[in-house]
Write a structure and sequence with these properties.
Strand order of the largest sheet: 5-6-10-7
Distance between the termini: 67 Å
Number of helices: 19
CATH topology: Cytochrome p450
CATH superfamily: Cytochrome P450
Number of strands: 14
């Protein structure tokens, strides 16, 4: 392959493109302080060709990989090559499957863990210095990433701050349940778009103290603010992985890059309108405002461009991610009536009356519900795994992993392998319940649906809380049954259901 090493800079950190050695297998052994180790090029993987590397594997008609079915690609690689697989789709890439190896990878983390992701979005935002200071939390690396993370996470990650949002979240979800009853939802309708609207409404309330009124007749029009916001969030997320692999958008605005840019621009517009309304109405911080935006505006080391970038990131990350995760949870619960019965019995004890309010105490006591969420995330995590860009050389299973290697931990597939978990394809929440007969000692690095360490999902606690409240309200009101075919995934950065979410809702009499 052409020597393209260190031709692209990601926020000051050079990402090495594949060199001749990555394809030729030169330098079979490398000497380091631990003695002879095998070179990275000796790790098993698909054949690498000059110029194209392993990109041919993803090409239509000639390749057997599908960019929207990375879970299937992952299974093929594991069966063909084992627990470490090398690729070279433009960069040096390593897939890691074994949880013991995944732990080794994360133990190498720098103080500022790095990723090679959202590269086109980083390019877009840095081209607009009048709007953004950085590429945002999702695409930035290094000390600038840590400045953002350490400042914003104070109100995202502390248990008490998350509990403060329970009451308002429950209020929005209660309205949604009433809408389902009035609308008389049929299993012939795809439930996913409704979950998208619900999560826009929840995040608007919690993050910005803003109601989008997503379920009003006028807002269900395709040209409404809520509809276009949902479309823009999907438009931003859906092309990220393809753009990360691509090169042409760096030379001219490809249709996929234009879709990303247009989507980002609309999210900027919505966020800016909310932000300007807030700073115009509140010259001084409102002490009674416990929204995330209210907390951001009180931070002394943030300016409005930082806040605007975070608002766009929140909308991008919150709508699709939580909606898809909830869809998969309802899929598993709807297919397992014995699990749903246990959930209902627990919820009934916590909420004897349907109109009782949900408190943070009730959420914390809904242990079986939370185990169902964990089990659903094991089988259908937010993404297939976690990405890292190595910042130093290290040895893994006798192979030298060079600095600048992109690593993807294949947690989704590993969580479905019998050598790591019993009856791996069975939906069994009890495996997470300490003291129960079905409890398992699961390797802590096997299921990582929200990532690991300082670079883990900043909104993890909030997302889990929102999903639990949605499930508590829905199961309290309805017996839910899955009416569709077996549900797989489309890997559009985050895992989306590959078929309509077909559910029947039968009202409960209790």
């Amino acid at each position: 392959m052409l020597k393209l090493s260190k031709t692209f800079t990601n926020n000051g950190k050079c990402v090495r493109f594949v060199s001749n050695a990555a394809c030729s297998g030169e330098n079979k052994e490398v000497q380091n302080e631990k003695g002879h180790v095998k070179s990275f090029e000796e790790i098993p993987g698909p054949k690498c060709y000059p110029i194209v590397g392993t990109l041919y594997k993803y090409a239509p008609y000639i390749g057997d990989y599908n960019v929207e079915k990375l879970d299937r690609n992952s299974l093929m690689n594991w069966r063909r090559y084992g627990s470490l697989v090398r690729e070279a789709p433009g960069v040096r890439l390593l897939h890691v499957y074994d949880p013991e190896d995944i732990e080794v990878v994360f133990r190498q983390d720098h103080r500022f863990p790095a990723r090679r992701s959202h590269i086109a979005m980083l390019h877009y935002r840095l081209s607009k210095p009048h709007v953004y200071n950085t590429g945002g939390l999702l695409s930035t690396n290094g000390s600038e990433w840590w400045r953002l993370r350490s400042t914003f996470q104070k109100n995202f990650t502390s248990p008490q701050s998350v509990k403060n949002h329970v009451e308002r979240t429950d209020g929005v979800i209660t309205e949604f349940v009433q809408w389902i009853k009035e609308r008389n939802i049929s299993h012939n309708e795809d439930f996913l778009p409704y979950l998208n609207r619900l999560n826009l409404e929840v995040i608007g309330t919690v993050a910005f103290n803003e109601r989008f009124e997503s379920f009003s007749p006028q807002e269900q029009d395709s040209n409404s603010r809520s509809s276009k916001t949902i479309q823009a969030a999907f438009g931003s997320n859906s092309g990220i992985m393809r753009l990360d692999k691509g090169l042409l958008w760096r030379l001219f605005k490809t249709p996929l890059y234009k879709k990303l840019a247009d989507s980002q621009e609309y999210l900027e517009k919505v966020s800016k309108e909310i932000l300007m309304k807030r700073v115009t109405f509140f010259v001084h911080p409102d002490d009674n405002d416990n929204s995330l935006l209210g907390s951001f505006l009180k931070q002394p080391n943030l300016d409005l461009k930082d806040v605007l970038g975070m608002m766009v990131d929140i909308i991008m990350a919150a709508i699709d991610t939580t909606a898809y995760t909830t869809s998969f949870a309802l899929y598993h619960i709807g297919r397992n009536p014995e699990v749903q019965k246990k959930m209902y019995n627990e919820i009934l004890a916590l909420l004897p009356s349907k109109d009782a309010k949900i408190s943070s105490d009730i959420v914390s006591k809904a242990i079986y519900v939370r185990s169902c969420v964990k089990e659903s995330l094991r089988l259908n995590p937010v993404s297939i795994g976690v990405g890292r860009l190595t910042q130093k050389d290290f040895v893994l299973r006798g192979y030298l992993i060079p600095e600048g290697t992109v690593i993807v931990t294949q947690n989704m597939l590993a969580s479905r392998l019998p050598q790591y978990i019993k009856d791996p394809l069975k939906f069994k929440p009890e495996r997470w319940l300490r003291g129960s007969e079905g409890h398992e000692n699961i390797h802590p690095f096997l299921s990582l649906p929200f990532g690991f360490g300082p670079r883990s999902c900043i909104a993890r606690r909030l997302a889990e809380q929102n999903i639990c409240i949605i499930l508590i309200r829905l199961i309290r009101e309805f017996n839910i049954k899955w009416m569709g075919d077996e549900l797989g995934i489309r890997t559009l950065l985050i895992n989306k259901p590959d078929k309509p979410v077909s559910l029947s809702f039968t009202p409960r009499n209790e």
